[in-house]
Amino acid sequence: MTYQNTLYTNLMKLVEDSQQEKRATFTFKDVDCVVDPNFTYRIFNYQLPKYSDFLKEAAMQCRGTMFRINKETKSFELVSLPMDKFFGLGENPSTMNIQPEDIKEAYVKEDGSLLSSYVTVDGNLGLKSKSEPIFAFDSLVREYLSQHPILNDNLLKLSQDGYTVDLEFVSLNNRVILEYKEPALHILNIRSNKDGSYIDFRNKDFLSQYPIEDYLVKTLDLSLFKDLGKNNKYLSLPDIEGAVVRLTDGRLVKIKTEWYMSQHNYVNIQDFSKAGEKLFMVVMNEATDELRSLLHYRNNSPNFKLEEKLALIDKAETTILEEYNSFISEIGGFMEKYQHLDDKSFMEAVKTNLSNDKIKIVMPLYKGKVNSLKDSFILNYQKKIKI
């Protein structure tokens, strides 16, 4: 339990320290267990971070790590440990100057939705998203697993044996850019909850114990990366988003393809002075680094005005983050303090503490008509903030 105790302590300190800063980047969310109200799921996450934020202790682990807390005894157990935060090639100092010989293995980066496994209180297979103990496309995944009982049984067995399985779900329903005609689950990583290590799941002995070979994400030949390091940050492969590579030092790095970069919907932001709501969503979806990469990729003439576009992204990020942090502080703080009250008491608190424009924001949150503070901010400020 030493690893779990240390991880929990470090994550709690990371969140506590973050709350003292002007921009609270690291947070946790408590969600009551549906099948047993004596337990709470505590999910650690980040919101709109900068690269420097991830240099802090435990920050790379603060991306969906979930503990189950016993409300009575206050004891906790690590139940789901998604893969570390990782970055794109050339995105920041940690992923620059990577050479082909630095790559140990590579696999296809599927263009879908990430989910992670765990065991529920009643012993069943749980599937979580980055921020919730329930996956958004849970019913579709369950339908797929009902047709693939070997995968379902082994995901449960792996989770019961103390592992977290990271998977990518692809289908027409959660399409980003690539079109998948049939739904599928791809196993990306398997990680030990006991010590945080990554398992070599392609090992024959491991596969003999857990027959999941048909569901492992497709590997890529390392010869495809021979041109990296020659001012080339993209792969010349069609019809895939890119690759995830594991370096010899254990780190993960994602590498996009030129084809995907040209297809991505961010390239539709042609006139940044009129980007408005699109640029707002780029910031809120934590995709400004990817947008910067796209702009560098498309910069092929002086008339492109790259520096102006990059400056506008910086301005948008600063403006929106300041407003968002103020929103989290005021609305989030109010909801944390009063959302447990009954209707009458809550309304009294609302009238005493909030202006009329804020009342229109908190009531949908209180009634459960808006699921999260982030969703509420987008709903109320997307058209309001001017860049």
Itemize the secondary structure elements and their pairings.
Layout: H1 2-19, E1 26-32, E2 39-46, E3 66-70, E4 76-80, E5 87-88, E6 103-109, E7 113-119, E8 125-128, H2 138-146, H3 149-160, E9 163-170, E10 184-192, H4 204-209, E11 242-247, E12 252-256, H5 258-263, H6 277-284, H7 288-298, H8 306-338, H9 343-353, H10 356-367, H11 373-381
Parallel strand pairs: 5-12
Antiparallel strand pairs: 1-2, 2-3, 3-4, 6-11, 7-8, 7-9, 9-10, 11-12
Spatial ordering of strands, largest sheet: 1-2-3-4
Helix content: 25-40%
Shape: globular
Structural class: alpha+beta
Count of β-strands: 12
Order of helices and strands: HEEEEEEEEHHEEHEEHHHHHHH
Unreliable spans = none
Largest sheet: 4 strands, antiparallel
Strand percentage lies at 15-25%
The termini sit apart by 49 Å
Rounded Rg: 22 Å
Mean pLDDT over all positions: 89
What oligomeric arrangement do these chains adopt? single chain
Number of helical regions: 11
Structure notes:
The chain has a four-stranded antiparallel β-sheet, with helices on one face. It contains eleven helices and twelve strands. Helix 6 (277-284) crosses helix 8 (306-338) and helix 7 packs antiparallel against helix 8. By secondary structure, the chain is an alpha+beta fold. The chain is 35% helix and 19% strand.
Short description:
This protein has 387 residues and is α+β, with helices and mostly antiparallel strands. It has eleven helices and twelve strands. The mean pLDDT is 89.
Task: Name the descriptors.
387 residues
